[in-house]
Amino acid sequence: MIDKINSIKNGALNSIEKAGSLDDLENLKIKYLGRKSEFTNILKSLKDLPEEQRRTVGQQSNATKKAIEDVFMQKEQELKAKSFDFAAEKIDVTMPAKKMRRGHLHMLTQVRNEIEDIFTSMGFETVEGPEIETEFYNFDALNMPKDHPARDMQDTFWLKTEKGKERLALRTQTSAAQVKYMEKHEPPLRIIVPGKCFRREATDSTHEHTFYQFEALMVGEDINVGNLKYIAQEFFSKFFKKDIKVRLRPSYFPFTEPSFEFDISCTVCGGKGCSACRNAGWLEIGGAGMVNQNVFIAAGYKRNAYQGLAWGFGLERLAMMKYKVTEIRLFHGSDLRFIKQF
Ligand code: FA5
User: Fold this and answer.
1) Topology of domain 107-339, CATH
2) What is the atom index within ligand 1 of the atom nearest the CA of 286?
3) For residue 340, what are the CA distances in angstroms to 102, 324, 331, 336?
4) Tens-place pLDDT, residues 154-195
5) What's phi and psi for 286, nearest 5 deg?
6) pLDDT, tens digit, for every residue of 298-318?
7) Which residues does a 6 A CB cutoff place in the pocket of ligand 1?
8) H/E element, 232
9) What is the domain partition of the chain in residue ranges?
């Protein structure tokens, strides 16, 4: 059997050496290594040989197979190189290139940039705060001590904190930046704080567990509700690029007094009533108010030395109104069909 294997090997190596084309080579491959080849039949019959023969013949067969395959590969490369017609190879420099797909800023980043531009033009500075915040800045300093019922308004993701250390949470509101900033700055001051907020609540088409707010805070000696209304009206008119009316309704936040819910005239119908505003003519947009004196005290200011206005609006909600998006969860999803539209 060893002789047979050697004769197949010699025959194969000889023929491969003489092969003149890739087609010839392919036929030789079938002839010497194909499923019905003599060599494959020998390999199949190995199992019937007595034990001591099986080992030597098996080793010889494997070595032969590898030798034939190596020569095949070498010859194939040689023939391929020969068949390539370098002279015929031309580069058509006029052929249009493949279009490059360019990415763009996410719609929420675009909206955030727009908001920052408008407020910068009104003399506000953009300030950032951490997403992981102490209980003090997110709640206590905002006139919301531990047992305050208003804490239930914002379901919170608490972090595991070592015993005896101050509790940390994913901030529920950008208002958390207020006292932190005021501790280090004296009025007059004008800031906006755009940033991510987190709430442990069920999601639906207008609620996310992770969303953006932007806070505005303006403090001075004689800031009043009129300033709040005027600045908001200016901002919304610039943001929506049309005349927007603003309405304040009495509300409650521990850190503002008085507090308001903020409505703007419907950006679709202008106030006449349509499906977007459920025929109310108004759209609810966020919370606002005059800074509670207890917040100033927490920041180290003297009681009644200053007055301030503050608000906190949802960025996604504004983007939804401007770009007519009806599902908030699309913003943080990864559906490119949505992301590419804006
Ligand atoms: C607050 O968070 C207050 N800090 C706002 C404030 C700031 C009031 C300064 C007074 C002075 P509220 O929980 O209502 O308030 O949230 C404000 C806005 O954030 C909402 O109107 C909405 O636009 C947005 N928002 C709140 N929760 C969600 C949520 N789960 N998903 C998306 N947007 C939300």
Assistant:
1) BirA Bifunctional Protein; domain 2 (3.30.930)
2) 21
3) 10, 15, 11, 6
4) 899 999 999 899 999 999 999 999 999 999 999 999 999 999
5) 165, 180
6) 999 999 999 999 999 999 999
7) 154, 173, 175, 199, 201, 207-208, 211, 213, 215, 253, 256, 286-289, 310-314, 316-317, 328
8) helix 225-240
9) 2-87, 107-339
